[in-house]
Amino acid sequence: MRVLAVIPARGGSAGIPLKNLATVGGLPLVTRAIRACLHAGLIDEVVVSTDHEEIARVAREAGATVVERPAELSGATASSESALLHALDARGQEPEVVLLVQCTSAFIDPADLDEGVRRVLEGEADVVFSGTPTHEFLWTVAGAGVNHDPSVRLPRQQREPHYRETGAFYVMRTAGLREHGHRFFGEVVVQPVPAGHAVEVDEPADLEIVRALAPFVDHPEPIDVDAVITDFDGVHTDDRAYVDSEGREMVLVSRSDGMGVSLLRRAGVKVLVMSTEQNPVVSARARKLGVPVLQGLTDKRTVLRDWLAIEGLDPARVAYVGNDVNDLGPMALVGWPVATPDAHPRVRATARVVLSTPGGSGAVRELCDRILAARPEPEPEAAPAPARTRRLGPVAIGDVLVGEGQPVYVIAEIGINHNGDVEIAKQLIDVAAEAGCQAVKFQKRTPEICVPVEQRDQIRQTPWGEMTYLEYKIRTEFGADEYREIAAHSYKRGLQWFASPWDVPSVHFLEEMEVEVHKVASASVADHELLRALAATGKPIILSTGMSTLSEIDQAVEILGGNPLVLMHATSTYPLPPEEANLRAITTLRERYGLPVGYSGHERGLQISLAAVTLGAVTVERHITLDRTMWGSDHAASLEPTGLEHLVRDIRVIEQAMGDGIKRVFPGEEAPKARLRRITV
Asked: Which end of the chain is more exposed for a tag (fewer CB within 10 A), N or C?
């Protein structure tokens, strides 16, 4: 064992009784600390030091080893170092590095833990602690400046930040801790963490703050359940009712909720609607969804408990979605209490998950998508009709639907712009995530197969010196270890990742990496051996059509016809001049094949990609780079970070502006109409 994380979690607390068991985002603080450590790749073991039986039980369930903390080390005056040293002695193994991780910080990023550990392991520091940057001016009670000269008030941009210790984690060389008996010794450096991660829970008010922050800070996780129970008003609706002159009620619901419930039922997840009111509107909506409904309930908790028993369901594997205080009872029964974002504060505080979409606007669909993300892919359906007559709806790529009526699926093509450096690849993943993309794409080759024989021994000048073209291609190719890092980093940033395989062994490699979709590069449209290997995976395929005739595309679609398929219009000129973009081919492909069609662009600038969206492109793929002047063949035709951010921003504006095509007078027109409209006969 090289790296050990120790989490002190005593039962006593002056500010908040049993603070370490207080829930944030539906999880106890001690569980959140354990999960952060377990998700850090460089931590070998996680130990919780506690004197409390319930904390010990929760810690074991979360995956930690428990060390019983003696009473003399559990009082209010006992230091964290004493618990740390006791845990080291109790484990009987001396790790090279030990971490002190504190439950009082609800938001600890595993990547920050890994970076701190790396810096100690590689000798950059003896101690690394979490700190958040601040430009605040500090004063003594007597009115003296602590970190500034009051007579010289430099603007923020001219001052280096100071760092406030957050108390979240401390990474130490174990030998130094043994020698000094304290967490600070030798070379001490700070690991910067965002201000949103830096709230320390000491008082009840702090707990309320982190509970309010949790929906915005926590990364959404798949929800693995066997049943979903929902309240009606405020969950399926926006909690408003429209009453006509006859006293009849109407409510606003989201069509997308219906598709989500349908997908859940198809996946074998039970769905039930519960309501305290007896209302024909509720009955009508439940019939439309094809799910049972229980109405006129005065005690939802008792009814739900009986229903779970009748259905033989484990409450821990059930989700309940509510928005008001009458939902607190049933929410306490299940393992996944869920709240809408505008729910009552007590409901949000109780919830394990707070949705981002309000009731009536797709809240149920958001929940359905996260449940489906935790379930295995369904078996492929029977072979569809011939390619030219197929009519498909959206294609599911993991938990994302790609197709007409769905948000444009934006793919940041990293390709080979990582130049063989996994750290550059991870920086580009960060760029894609911060811009708002849904996926990143790479290229995977077996150089010994893909490099033509006549080119293998050609000499190339590279950043690593002079080498043959084959040596260069091998030098820049990632293997399993790098792609595991890429997969972990993409998942952490909330992105899907996949690649274009250029040969059959690369297909098998990507299958072992468990990608959710495969991409066919334009260069591979006529490689039928490769296409058959991809078809055999049964997974969704994105097929680029650059430098291809309709006849070649016909054959490719025929081979891939059993897989969910998205076509990509492309012109393989680098960089692409506008006169060769031929964007109307998007319509041609959609009408010919009846498939979702996107756009893969190689132009400079954004205009052509944005025009493709207005023509109905359901996905947009663009190469990205940290700097277009970097060495490599694809950098010049790539978007830099700011360009990618603007592309995604403008695509989302266009989506809103496209509307539904129904001509109507909008609310904003009513006042000008009344003022300006002249009617004559």
From this structure: C
